[in-house]
Amino acid sequence: MKFSFVNASPNEDLDERERRKAIASFPPLGILYLAAVLKERGIEVSALDQPAKGFTIKETVRWVEKEDPDILGFSTFSSSGRTAALISNEVKKKNPDIITVFGNYYATFNPERILRKYPSVDIIARGEGENTVVDLVNCLRNKGKLKEVLGITFINKNGIISTLDRPLITNLDSLPFPDRKLIDSEYHCMVAGANVAIKKFTSIVSSRGCVYRCRFCSCRQFARTTWRPRSVKNTLQELHFLASEGYKQFIFVDDSFTLNQKRVIKLCRSMRKEKIDMEWICEGRVDNCSYEMLREIAKAGCKILYFGIESANQRILNYYNKQTTPQQSKTAVRTARKAGIDVIIGSFIVGAPDETREEIHNTIEFAKKNSDRFSTI
Asked: What is the rounded distance in angstroms from the CA atom of residue 40 to the CA atom of residue 37?
């Protein structure tokens, strides 16, 4: 049995600026984790990052034909779900027997809608997929019952069936490293409209999930408001491997990298002790960034730090349930600069449902006044 994966390109109706941001920014780690897990179990796999390759829908369909998999999985977001559906439809026309599976955020939060709207989609894999994909392959290979596979949604003669949610993976160290060699593409991280990764670049995740409940963010629901770290030892092993493969720059794509400051300090000190000489990027919360931690981050090679500031208005921050203040944002930026971080990125959101023109103006002015301290996007 063969399982092929496609990371779909942004939908054609997406704003051009957003499309450019999505193209070849980071490797699709989700797919690469799934592929590594399947390969460990002797399953043949292949993967395509459509936006990184610049493939059209027709070219992607031809790639699928050439690979000739039994199961075709799509990594989908709201920005790429329609493209994935169009590809699956064309693939099904040519090979009605192929099993198509949608996963990732878009699929997790819209399973019934997708199945009703797109008959070419057979199965939705909800939430974390490493264990689900193994059980699904075994079920299909052995002609088992789909209703016994946790964490999926599908249609049968009785209608739409959703099995119980699959428990989260508690021991992330048990997972193999993502198989980055499956995708022959060059990645460049785009931050604030600039290419900040001109050397050999990749992404890495040292923890999953987030305990905060920001209204605008879906990661807490995806990970059920649970944070799970990899061990420092296991993370270092992957970093050493990346260095041996010639990588010079990377980004931690954790949902909440700095949640445990003691862990971050231990990781950074270990990186310096073990002479991991790479430049990197990470994110942090403005209410969780001591000078000690930020200094260790800087000394370990972090060149860019991303803060989610969101608004200069406390009322709007409260609406977002951000649990921060504008003053904390100012303090965090000053502390990061003092600690030696080269580039500090601040993100802002304008247009909350009842946000006033004056409040929007306050946020814009806040960003302008502090632009000597951080870049804004």
From this structure: 5
Is 167 part of any domain? no
Encode pLDDT of 311-359 as tens digits.
999 999 999 999 999 999 999 999 999 999 999 999 999 999 999 999 9
d(CA 6, CA 45): 11
* Cross-strand bridge partners of residue 318: none
Contacts of 215 (CB under 8 A, 6+ apart): 319, 320, 321
Tell me the whole-structure pTM to 2 decimals.
0.93
Q: Would you tell me how many other CB atoms lie within 10 Å of the CB of residue 27?
A: 24
Closest C-alpha among 227, 241, 240 to residue 172:
227
- Beta strand extents in the chain (DSSP E only): 2-7, 44-49, 71-75, 99-103, 123-125, 152-156, 159-162, 190-191, 194-195, 201-204, 207-208, 228-229, 249-252, 279-284, 302-310, 343-348, 375-376
Q: Give residue 246's domain range.
A: 188-376
3-state secondary structure of 316: helix
With tokens 């785009």, the residue in question is 190
- Pair 124, 13 in one domain: yes
Residues 241 and 371 in one domain: yes
Task: Give how far Cα 111 sits from Cα of 87, 107, 144, 151, Å.
Answer: 18, 5, 22, 11
154 and 236, same domain (yes or no): no
Rg (alpha carbons) of the chain, rounded to whole number: 21
